[in-house]
């Protein structure tokens, strides 16, 4: 008799536990706590997996000849010198720009530092676009810090998992919205990921543009700096298609960064910290 | 018991492995290894085992993927536990056939249920995000159907390997496979 009803008893206990779990995690604070705990457990394994992948990739790389490697080192040394010189010049211009803005009574634009980070995991779900980086609370990473590469914007930090890992939502995710401006115009709009794009390079949408906006393919879209999360003037992508809608105009953008292949990024950390 | 614990461990390992598998080119879908192992657990283990496996699978999936939208979670943590339990229960309904040594229909069902998982996620996201809109084009269909197709193709191999591991640990998931059924 008890054996026959065992299935119902176990099912009942399971249902009660399920309802309790759903109720327990309906509180965002408790859910965030549980999520952080689990991510803390899994992140060392993700890091290990990532280093294995890199090790395998570097094995492939090591098949280069000595001459090829020497040429590459030479090229990288020259590029490094060029970049250092450019960076030096830009720092000077930034200081001058801030001085002149101060003289005109404008608010001084915040200077920032770049924290290099490595991608240790990419999101494995179908509908989210996230990555995990190897920098966390110990490196002053906080939620809502811009993440970029030398080519352009990548996304922003959302969840600091542990002392040495944090999650970054990519610009191609629909939940990441960026205030943007278009090169050579005064047009401003909001960039966000498109939900259902093909398997190739995911596209972005630039919406809330004026109906009279006159944009054309090939124009570069930059961050406008409005909102304080993303610094001003970081390239987001290039306009691929532009169309007028009933109330506004809309542009489809190809991201400046190939998000499927990047391995290293920079997190923007305010100089005030 | 050893096999049950091993399956839970394998679910965790599969979750890490699938995290390093990129989107499939051309169709853009994902390889959902953890879900295949979880559905195997639903037919290979008795009811309590199925419940624990789906609970763990749902919790790990949500903990890894749920994201905040403003003050609240877009999809609340625990939602996948409910979904996976329902789908696991459907799979468990076919357990008697699996015990008798059949596996073909279970592989097809694995693909179908994986499709349902991805579709359910998409429907919930479409409802939760502003503006509420349900876009269903070829790309979306491929992402959903592709995940199911990959699961269908992978499941015979996964089932075979796991059956072998089960026997090695002293557990027989198909004890009635040599029993002849009487036909009238």
Describe the structure in your own words:
The complex is a heterodimer of chains A (273) and B (184). Chain A is of the alpha+beta class and 273 residues long. Chain A contains three helices and twelve strands, in the order H-H-H-E-E-E-E-E-E-E-E-E-E-E-E. Chain A has a six-stranded antiparallel beta barrel. A six-stranded antiparallel barrel of chain A has the order 6-7-8-11-10-9. The model of chain A has no long low-confidence stretch (mean pLDDT 83). A two-stranded antiparallel ribbon of chain B has the order 1-2. The mean pLDDT of chain B is 87. Chain B is built from seven helices and two strands; from the N terminus they run αααββαααα. The radius of gyration of chain B is 17 Å and the shape is globular. The chains are: A alpha+beta (273), B mainly alpha (184). Chains A and B meet through helix 1 and helix 2 of A and helix 1, helix 3, strand 1, strand 2 and helix 4 of B.
As a whole number of angstroms, the C-alpha radius of gyration of chain A is 23 Å
Taking the sheet with the most strands of chain A, its summary is:
6 strands, antiparallel, barrel
Point out poorly predicted stretches of chain A.
none
Unreliable parts of chain B: none
The end-to-end span of chain A amounts to 68 Å
Helix content of chain B: 55-70%
Structural class of chain A: alpha+beta
Coarse shape of chain B = globular
Strand content of chain B: under 5%
Strand pairing plus helix content of chain B: what structural class? mainly alpha
Shape descriptor of chain A = globular
> What is the tally of helical segments of chain B?
7
The helix/strand series of chain A, from N terminus to C terminus, equals: HHHEEEEEEEEEEEE
């Amino acid at each position: 008799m008890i054996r026959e009803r065992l299935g119902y008893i176990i099912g009942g206990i399971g249902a009660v536990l399920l309802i309790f779990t759903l109720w327990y995690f309906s509180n965002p604070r408790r859910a965030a706590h549980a999520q952080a705990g689990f991510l803390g457990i899994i992140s060392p394994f993700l890091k290990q997996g990532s280093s294995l992948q890199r090790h395998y990739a570097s094995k492939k790389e090591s098949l280069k000849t000595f001459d090829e490697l020497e040429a590459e080192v030479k090229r990288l040394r020259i590029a490094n010198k060029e970049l250092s010189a450019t960076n030096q010049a830009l720092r000077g211009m930034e200081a001058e720009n801030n001085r002149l803005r101060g003289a005109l009574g404008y608010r001084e634009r915040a200077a920032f530092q770049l924290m290099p980070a490595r991608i240790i995991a990419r999101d494995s779900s179908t509908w989210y676009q996230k990555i995990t980086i190897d920098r966390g609370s110990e490196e002053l990473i906080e939620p809502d810090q811009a993440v970029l590469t030398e080519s352009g914007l990548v996304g922003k930090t959302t969840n600091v998992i542990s002392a040495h890992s944090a999650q970054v939502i990519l610009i191609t995710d629909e939940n990441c919205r960026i205030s943007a401006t278009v090169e050579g115009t005064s047009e401003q709009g909001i960039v966000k990921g498109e939900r259902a794009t093909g398997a190739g390079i995911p596209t972005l949408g630039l919406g809330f543009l004026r109906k009279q906006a006159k944009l054309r393919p090939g124009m570069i879209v930059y961050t406008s700096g409005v909102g304080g999360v993303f610094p001003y003037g970081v390239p987001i992508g290039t306009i691929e298609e532009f169309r007028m809608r009933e109330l506004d105009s809309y542009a489809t953008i190809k991201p400046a960064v190939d998000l499927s292949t990047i391995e290293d990024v920079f997190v923007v950390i305010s100089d005030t910290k | 018991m050893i096999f049950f614990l091993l399956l839970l461990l394998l679910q965790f390992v599969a979750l890490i492995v699938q995290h390093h598998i990129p989107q499939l080119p051309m169709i853009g879908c994902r390889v959902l290894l953890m879900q295949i192992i979880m559905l195997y657990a639903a037919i290979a283990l008795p009811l309590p085992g199925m419940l624990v496996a789906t609970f763990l699978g749902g919790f790990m999936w949500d903990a890894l993927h749920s994201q905040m939208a403003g003050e609240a979670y877009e999809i609340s943590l625990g939602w996948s536990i409910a979904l996976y339990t329902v789908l696991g229960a459907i799979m468990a309904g076919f357990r008697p056939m699996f015990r008798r040594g059949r596996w073909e229909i279970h592989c097809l069902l694995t693909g179908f249920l994986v499709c349902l998982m991805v579709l359910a996620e998409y429907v919930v996201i479409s409802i939760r995000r502003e503006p509420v809109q349900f876009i269903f084009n070829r790309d979306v269909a491929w992402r959903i159907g592709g995940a199911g197709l990959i699961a269908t193709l992978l499941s015979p191999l996964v089932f075979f390997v796991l059956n072998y591991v089960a026997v090695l640990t002293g557990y027989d998931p198909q004890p009635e496979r040599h029993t002849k059924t009487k036909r009238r």
